[in-house]
Every structure is written in C-alpha cells, then in structure tokens.
C-alpha cells in the first residue's frame, strides 16, 4: 500500500486537477519517478530535508537580551555584533570627519560661485578642526573678497600661529598691521618671519623682511633695533651678489632710493653709529636724482656728532653755498651749533647776513636771520625783515615771529 491517499478517478475528481488534461503524465514519465520510488513496498519514505530554525524569543526579557547582543534582521540570520571598542571612532575622529565634510562642502559651494555659502561651510569646518591650516588658507582670501576684513585678519593670525615657518604670510600680515598703526603686533610677526627656518639668510626675501623691520622699529622709536635691521639692508645693497639682489628686488626695496638711504643714515646717526650713517648717506648721494648738496648736509651732521667740527663746517658750507632750501631752518640751526662748538658764536650773524644777501628769496634763511636779530637786540632789523616777508609772501612763521618781537618790545600795535 502506498503511503499517499487514493483519489477517485471520477469526472469530478478530474475537474479538481485540470493540469492533468493539459499535461498528461504519459508525456512526462519522469514526474512519476518519485511516486514510484515512494510506493515501493517495505521501504519507508525518506524524511524531507528541513532547516533548523532557532525559535524566536518568547518573552520580552529574552528579546531584550538578544537585542543587547547585537542586531538580527530576520530569523535564521547571524547576530550582527557591535564593533569592538578599539575599532569605534573617537570623538576627535568624528569631529575630524565632520570638519572634512564641511571643508569639502565649502569647496563645492565655491566652485558654484556660492561664496557666502562656502564661507559659512569653511567656518563650520574651522570650528570643528581649529588647528587645520588648510581651512584658514581657504578662509583668508574668501573673507577679504567678502569685505570681512576683521575676520580675515583673525584667520591670518591663527594661520601664522599654526604655521610659524610661513614667513611670507607673517610678513604680509605684519606689513598690513603696520599700515593700520598696530606696530607692536607688526613687529612680532616680522620677527617671526625673520626667524623662519625656511627663509635663507642670504636671500632677497630676508633683506625685504629686514627692511620692513627697520621701518616699523624706527616708527616705534626703537632706533637701536631699527639700525640692527638696516645693517643687513646696507650690506645687501653694497654686496648684491651675496644676497641675490636683482633690479626687481632692488626696486621693491626702495621706491625712492635717495630718500630711503637718507632716512636710513639718519637712523644710524641717531642710534649712535656714525660710520654706518656715512655709508648710507654716500649711497643716497650716489643715487641718480639725488639732490645736490644733500650729502654734504648729512655728512655735516655726522661730523658734528663725532665732534669733528672743522669737517662738519666744511661739508655744511657746501650745502649752504648751493642755496638749497630742502632742510629748511635745520641747516642754519646746525650752523649755529657748529660755530658755538668751535667757540665762534659771534660769527653766526655775519655769516647769516652774507648768506641772506646772496640768497634773498630764501624765506627760511630770512626768518632765521630775523630771529637772531631779535635775540641780539637788533629789533629794527628784525622788524624790517618780518614786514618785508608779510608784504611779499606772508607765512604763519612770519606772523609768529612778529608777535614774539612785539612781546619782547611790549608794544603790540592796535
């Protein structure tokens, strides 16, 4: 007997199996093989292959315990356990990934000309990764282009702090702060640039940084420090091959070389280095377009400071006889100092009269002579000069001198 139940061969039975008429078994004999095998007497039917199914948790506590182990999407799946603690990202790594995402967002927005959106994205990145120099390098030019100057300076200061070897950035920022009058901050950045290990001490860049330092230190009144910086500049100009100075760098160093060297010489002189001052003044005199006689005046200053009064007077006379007016009354004040140092103070007024006669259209000379007439009690001579100046080319100095003269006389006209 077969283990399968018998089905009556009736019309009604055939109606329940319509596939038998459409697909007669005689045409598909292999379909009968399992049935024949299964119907062999004395043999037990093979057990169907089944898959072991792990029963689902039957209670809430079991379910919670299972979920505590990991995650299983459906019955029969292996439990997906959480990552070991050693493989999980730390909070710093998470912030770094978020910062990178915001940074790339900024890059994308910038390529689509969404500059404000890019700026905001970069700022988010900087908040998450405040020590990443690349973020500030992207933020600085963008902040300037959006007219957010204060932000740009803050970003640049942070970038200079993070990358202390970037002497170009430190120099540019120092120059900008100097132009804004923030001299102390400017000096710190320029000194940082000068100390950079990436900056060759025999390069044009180093000379430019020293020039900037000299200018800012002089503006701060730190003449010794300014002179120290200017010594490098002076040496580089005198030996350009040793510093790789070309015409382009030299043009960047000095827009007006004669005036620049003259200012440098004055700094050396005030800092107590007359020999360096002479070198600078001679460079000023050698420059094309340098005013004739200016070198003589500057050398007179040096020789007066070194107490070489004869040489000082000799150089100053060259300036005075050239009838120059560029130094104003300072030249005549220097003449007075030299003559007094030589014990010849009485020679001052006669010498001034001689110069004034030869150069009657020099107002600085005329005013100085009038003041010395007044000091010597020659009020009529002083009054005549003041009145003459006020009739021809009135100046504030002439009115002031005349008022002082009247005060001396206690006779102020109504």
Number of strands: 0
Distance between the termini: 156 Å
Estimate the mean pLDDT confidence: 83
- Portion in strands: under 5%
Oligomer: single chain
- Which overall shape is indicated by the principal axes computed on the Cα atoms? elongated
Low-confidence residue ranges: 1-45
Structural class: mainly alpha
Order of helices and strands: HHHHHHHHHHHHHHHHHHHHHHH
Write a concise synopsis of the structure shown.
The chain is an all-alpha fold.
Please describe what this structure looks like:
This protein has 414 residues and is mainly alpha-helical. The chain has helices spanning 11-15, 19-22, 33-38, 60-69, 91-111, 115-128, 133-145, 149-162, 167-179, 183-195, 204-219, 223-238, 240-243, 247-253, 257-270, 274-286, 294-305, 309-321, 330-341, 348-358, 363-375, 379-392, 396-409. The N and C termini lie far apart (156 Å). Residues 1-45 have low confidence and may be disordered.
Produce the secondary structure layout.
Layout: H1 11-15, H2 19-22, H3 33-38, H4 60-69, H5 91-111, H6 115-128, H7 133-145, H8 149-162, H9 167-179, H10 183-195, H11 204-219, H12 223-238, H13 240-243, H14 247-253, H15 257-270, H16 274-286, H17 294-305, H18 309-321, H19 330-341, H20 348-358, H21 363-375, H22 379-392, H23 396-409
Helix pairs in contact: 5-6, 6-7, 7-8, 8-9, 9-10, 10-11, 11-12, 12-15, 15-16, 15-17, 16-17, 17-18, 18-19, 20-21, 21-22, 21-23, 22-23
């Amino acid at each position: 007997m077969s283990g399968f139940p018998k089905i009556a061969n009736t019309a009604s039975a055939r109606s329940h199996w319509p596939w038998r008429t459409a697909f007669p078994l005689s045409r598909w004999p292999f379909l009968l093989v399992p049935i024949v095998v299964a119907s062999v007497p004395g043999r037990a039917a093979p057990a169907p292959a089944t898959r072991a199914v792990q029963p689902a948790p039957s209670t809430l506590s079991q379910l919670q315990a299972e979920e505590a182990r990991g995650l299983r999407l459906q019955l029969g799946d292996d439990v997906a356990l959480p990552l070991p603690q050693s493989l999980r990202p730390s909070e710093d790594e998470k912030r770094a990934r978020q910062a990178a995402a915001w940074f790339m967002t900024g890059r994308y927005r910038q390529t689509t000309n969404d500059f404000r959106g890019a700026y905001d994205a970069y700022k988010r990145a900087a908040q998450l990764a405040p020590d990443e120099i690349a973020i500030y390098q992207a933020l600085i030019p963008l902040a300037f282009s959006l007219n957010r100057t204060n932000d740009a300076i803050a970003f640049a200061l942070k970038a200079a702090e993070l990358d202390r070897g970037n002497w170009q950035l430190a120099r540019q920022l120092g120059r900008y702060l100097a132009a804004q009058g923030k001299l102390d901050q400017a000096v710190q950045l320029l000194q940082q640039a000068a100390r950079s290990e990436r900056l060759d001490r025999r390069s044009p860049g180093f000379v430019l940084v020293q020039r900037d330092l000299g200018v800012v230190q002089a503006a701060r009144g730190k003449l010794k420090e300014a002179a120290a910086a200017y010594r490098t500049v002076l040496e580089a100009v005198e030996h350009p091959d040793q510093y790789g100075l070309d015409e382009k760098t030299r043009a960047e160093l000095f827009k007006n070389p004669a005036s620049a060297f003259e200012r440098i010489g004055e700094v050396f002189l005030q800092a107590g280095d007359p020999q360096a001052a002479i070198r600078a003044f001679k460079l000023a005199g050698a420059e094309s377009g340098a005013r004739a006689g200016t070198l003589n005046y500057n050398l007179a200053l040096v020789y007066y400071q070194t107490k070489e009064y004869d040489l000082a007077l000799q150089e100053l006379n060259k300036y005075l006889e050239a009838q120059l007016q560029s130094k104003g009354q300072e030249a005549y004040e220097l003449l007075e100092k030299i003559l007094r140092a030589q014990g010849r103070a009485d020679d001052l007024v006669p010498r001034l009269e001689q110069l004034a006669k030869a150069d009657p259209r020099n107002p600085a000379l005329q005013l100085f002579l009038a003041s010395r007439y007044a000091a010597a009690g020659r009020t009529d001579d002083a009054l005549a000069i003041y009145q003459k100046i006020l009739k021809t080319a009135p100046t504030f100095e002439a009115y002031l001198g005349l008022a002082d003269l009247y005060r001396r006389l206690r006779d102020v006209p109504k």
